[in-house]
Design goal:
about 100 residues, alpha+beta, Ribosomal Protein L30, Chain: A, three-stranded antiparallel β-sheet, 5 strands, about 35% helix, about 25% strand, globular
Amino acid sequence: MREMSVSFDNPKRIELDLPEVDLLTSGEEPCSLIVWNDEVNTFEWVIETLMEVCGHSAEQAEQCAYIIHFQGKYSVKQGTYEELKPQCDAITDRGIGATIEVVAE
């Protein structure tokens, strides 16, 4: 339960006792590069992109493409935000949906 107190010295000032939150202050948190399914791109194009952009083998890229297709999305790579951002941009530049998400610990 949140507690609230009002200062009688300054009745416009209200203080809330809120839970502490962690702020994203460093790019060192583990992140996932998520590739999203769509109805536009072919398996071949997604596979080629994963091989060229992420350095996947043909087999790894094919497996990822199938998981993306059937599950709707898939984490194709792990790393820091700084490592994954250029790859995410390269994937989206090819017309494939991709995002970076912080991995919950």
